[in-house]
Design brief:
This protein is α/β, with parallel strands linked by helices. The chain is built from 10 helices and 7 strands.
Length: 222
């Protein structure tokens, strides 16, 4: 069946035009960025539970599917209904998910991530959320949820476009600039406290940093 949002890139563009603040980009993540985001999951030594937040059209989901082994569990969260339909019909039906879905180890949720069950704990959380376009209160709420559901030693991966926060502060005025300064201060504070590694991915549009955090430990991710 044809997706209601069309192909991945075109569908992503349509979703961006409908709600730029929620989608945050005109194009889905490249395979290079997707691979960088799941590096901590790939390095696991035993079966793990992973949560993907803001899956979009599924470029990261596809790579997570290829890495799923026996005993691994994947929860995928996306708030936009048309993107959820695309994930259900065109991503999670791909062969790499077949065994895990049959065994009930892959779940798709349509909701804001803060509305998910906080009792369900994860070894890894991977986010494709547009943090720089969200209100400061929403950012804090999302990060507080992620911190709550990560197991001790768990790793949170997300990305941000190179130089975007600075560019937006230079190109905006008044209330918008004040909001961007507040957003940047929130993210920089968490980066200083929790970042354990970073990969810069040039083969993405725009180029992006994949960042890795561990909330309770300063030990780096190799």
């Amino acid at each position: 069946m044809r997706s209601t949002i069309g192909g991945g890139s075109w569908g992503f563009l349509r979703a961006f035009l409908a709600d730029p603040n929620l989608v945050g980009s005109v194009a889905p993540s490249s395979r290079f960025l997707a691979r960088a985001l799941i590096e901590p999951f790939k390095a696991r030594a035993e079966p793990a539970r992973v949560l993907e937040v803001g899956a979009g059209t599924g470029p990261v989901t596809v790579h997570l599917g290829h890495e799923l082994g026996a005993g691994d569990e994947l929860d995928v969260c996306e708030i936009k209904p048309e993107l959820v339909r695309h994930l259900e019909r065109h991503v999670l039906t791909q062969p790499q998910f077949a065994e895990a879905r049959e065994e009930g180890r892959v779940n798709l949720f349509q909701c804001a991530v803060q509305d998910m069950d906080r009792d369900r704990q994860y070894d890894f959380v991977v986010a494709g959320l547009p943090f720089t376009t969200l209100p400061p209160a929403a950012i804090e709420s999302v990060l507080e949820f992620i911190r709550t559901v990560l197991k001790p030693g768990g790793v949170f991966s997300y990305f941000e476009y190179v130089g975007l926060r600075r560019l937006r502060m230079l190109g905006t005025f008044g209330e918008t600039r004040r909001r961007m300064r507040e957003v940047s201060a929130i993210m920089d504070t968490h980066i200083r406290r929790h970042q354990i590694g970073r990969r810069t991915v040039l083969f993405n549009f725009p180029p992006a940093h994949a960042r890795y955090w561990r909330f309770e430990s300063p030990v780096g991710f190799a």
